[in-house]
Automatic annotation (TrEMBL):
Gene3D superfamilies: Adenine nucleotide alpha hydrolases-like domains, HUPs, Translation factors. Belongs to the MnmA/TRMU family. InterPro entries: MnmA-like (IPR004506), MnmA-like_C (IPR046885), MnmA-like_central (IPR046884), MnmA-like_central_sf (IPR023382), Rossmann-like_a/b/a_fold (IPR014729). The gene is mnmA. The active site is at C131 (nucleophile), C228 (cysteine persulfide intermediate). This is tRNA-specific 2-thiouridylase MnmA. It comes from Paracoccus isoporae. The lineage of its organism: Bacteria, Pseudomonadati, Pseudomonadota, Alphaproteobacteria, Rhodobacterales.
Amino acid sequence: MAQKGHYVNFVNDIRSDTELNSLGFAKPPSRTRVVVAMSGGVDSSVVAAHLAGQGYDVIGVTLQLYDHGAALAKKGACCAGQDIHDARRVAERVGFPHYVLDYENKFRESVIDEFADSYLAGATPVPCIRCNERVKFRDLLDTARDLDADCMATGHYIQRQMGPNGAELHMATDQNRDQSYFLFSTTQEQLDFLRFPLGHLASKAETREMAARYGLSVADKPDSQDICFVPNGNYATVIEKLRPGAADPGEIVDMDGNVLGTHQGVIHYTIGQRRGLGIGGLGDPLYVVKLDPDTRRVIVGPREALSTRIVPVGEVNWIGDGPFEGPAREVSVRIRSTRPPRGAILRATGPRSAEVELLDPEEGVSPGQACVFYETGGTRVLGGGWIQPRR
């Protein structure tokens, strides 16, 4: 807290006699070095081109996160071989240095291995959050500091705003593009160093228009849809390759333990799944309500069995005002990236654990997903954590 207060006082002091540039520094853009994390897509390319056009000392950095040879054959995913090439072309056209860093080992250790192990444990992980947390906003951010950068900019659709206690994280203006769910684990120290120049834009169309104005070859490049190391969204194939034997068969049972059928691996199922169970003709529709990797059982039940009000949360990252532990507080929470925030009561149960009580029950709450906290009726991200299995 002392560091944050010192930062705010410093900013207030320099505002009084020196005008800040667009990135918040009291010096000309030409003397402000910014590392731009470039995935090769249109968003980060526009950020780099725009900042360079404003006269900033831009350095583009692209991460090679997995096997480059294999990546060349796979388009449409971030950080693949084609994307590295596209990022390099943007840097050459605009005229700033660009580097490719081999983070393959870091990425496997920090993201891919946990992804596979989480699925084997019956969870539904979100590797993009771990990549931001452990690779881009940790290792790459450290590299940016080593390059004497004043800040690091990304193409994420989220806003960084200055509040009374320092930098705050807010949802993007365009709710359809908002990526706050994937950035809840950003720490205050990281937030002080990061910049998100696209968060205020009203639509993705504006980003593409800017790319066209800068003459960037990626102006019409499609957005990536898959997790970068999971071709065509086929999680099971990737996990079987990483963890041989992961697809061992087992039983599909109802909530009373009655065997209804068999399956070819727990990793093929997720909480809330209805289709593809292979147990049709049993009356009312059945849904996956629990996965038990220890017994290799998939437990199914009626839709009402999916309804959840109490959500245990671990590994909490808190970037709200004041200490996390204390009285219960009203918040809004998002328990899936595709669902809007909803009202809840947040109760801290430890320094980094909490119980979230949803005011209206939610279906399909799955361990391994994120639970992100927002201020009630506002846009500020207060932090979040990882949904834990219910006991």
